[in-house]
Amino acid sequence: MLRAPDAFSVLGISEKGPEGTAEVKTAYKRLALRVHPDKVRNCDPDDAKAAFARLDAAARIVEALCEHNADICRELRRVLRFDPFTVKGACQLLQVEQDADDSQVSKAKDDLKQKLAKAQLLEALSEVQRGIDACITAAETLGIARQGAPGAVGERLLAEGVPVASLTALGLRDLRHIGGRLQVRTAAYRAGEEVRVALCSGATAELPLQHLEEPANLCLWQPKAAALQWASQALTLPGRQDSSAASICICIREREDDEVEEERAPKRQRGVSGPRSVRLRHLLLRCAEPGKPLPEDPMARRRKVQTTRTPTEAEGELVALLRGLLSEPETGDEDNRMAFRRLCQLRSECSSAEGAGQLCGDLGWVSRGQSEPSFEQAAFSLRKGEFSDVTTTSRGVHLIQRIA
């Protein structure tokens, strides 16, 4: 009863609608004996009270509609029977064919809305509005279907649903019921507190918590790497046939400033916060879209055999390399740098990897404005010794380490 979608369903009114107020009263009396808080056993008292209150309200609504206009009451019952989010339900609701054009659908919608609007009683306002919303949604569904959208996918999502812990009314049309209201939840954090936020949808939302935690804990400040791992794992879930998976992860923390505030010249205007230059080492994996050659790069490492890979493959390789580096026991910054230097020598496709000894992969001191925005943003957000997230530029996919 608490889950019934409308007042008619609460009372168990037949699909044809009530013949008169007598039918409504009979249905109410029959159910009231079963759900009255004093009669119910082995049930949460609050649930029993809520169910009885819903039954009482539903009886008043349907009785008022029936007294006002029995034909409109039955039409509202018919409208609310169908699922406007599916093509079949939308056609039945608006009483049009699936191949109906825009004008036919619009006319059917407007006629129904005008008919239902005649029953705008104060007692039944919410139920009538639910019917009008259903008409509008049904027209939208048929409009989307005419545009060639994957309606079957949406209908499957509606049937399967998404766990409540994964999604709370984020606007996905397929997952919202008629008259649904957006639920907003907020969280507050102290100024300066480090925060990570992740959003998983579709197949990724089905991942067990432990599968989300492991990449997140390893790639603590590499959000894209964590999101890529979640999406990759989601595509291997048993029983699913998804061709894609989505996830977003962001990290927020205070930027470290290499200069002490007291040492700043008092009259010097402060520009962008953070260091003015950083010394970097990087590993580059070149890539190109499927069917296209690698882009010209005068700074590329010259090898007899050039590896051809897609951006997706390059990201996957780089995530695996990053995981290997982050999984190493913490033995000090020097060992950390040495491990990355060896990796650059073996795998990097930038000419900087040909540098001897300590200079392998070394880009030297890099100032702001000298590199592409994505590379600069990644590099200047690093703290000394840290590895960057998966970073994409016109040259390919990079893994960066700040060494000074």
Q: Any overview of this molecule?
A:
The chain has helices at 7-11, 21-35, 45-68, 70-81, 87-94, 102-117, 125-146, 151-160, 209-218, 223-234, 311-327, 333-347, 373-380; strands at 195-201, 246-252, 277-285, 362-367, 391-393, 396-402. By secondary structure, it is α+β, with helices and mostly antiparallel strands. The strands form two sheets. Strands 4-3-6-5 form a four-stranded antiparallel β-sheet, with helices on both faces. Strands 1-2 form a two-stranded antiparallel ribbon. Strand 5 (391-393) and strand 6 (396-402) form a beta hairpin. Helix 3 (45-68) packs across helix 4 and helix 9 packs antiparallel against helix 10. Mean pLDDT is 85; it is low at 160-170.
Key traits:
Chitinase A, domain 3, two-stranded antiparallel sheet, 404 residues, 10% strand, alpha+beta, elongated
Strand percentage, roughly?
Answer: 5-15%
Strand segment count: 6
Counting H and I runs of at least 4 residues, what is the number of helices?
13
**What is the chain-wise order of helices and strands?**
HHHHHHHHEHHEEHHEHEE
How many domains? The number is: 3
> What is the CA–CA distance across the termini?
66 Å
Q: Write down the overall mean pLDDT.
A: 85
Shape: elongated
The side-by-side strand order for the widest beta sheet comes to 4-3-6-5
> What about the largest sheet?
4 strands, antiparallel
Low-pLDDT runs = 160-170
Proportion of helical residues: 40-55%
- Determine Rg (CA atoms, Å): 31 Å
Structural class: alpha+beta
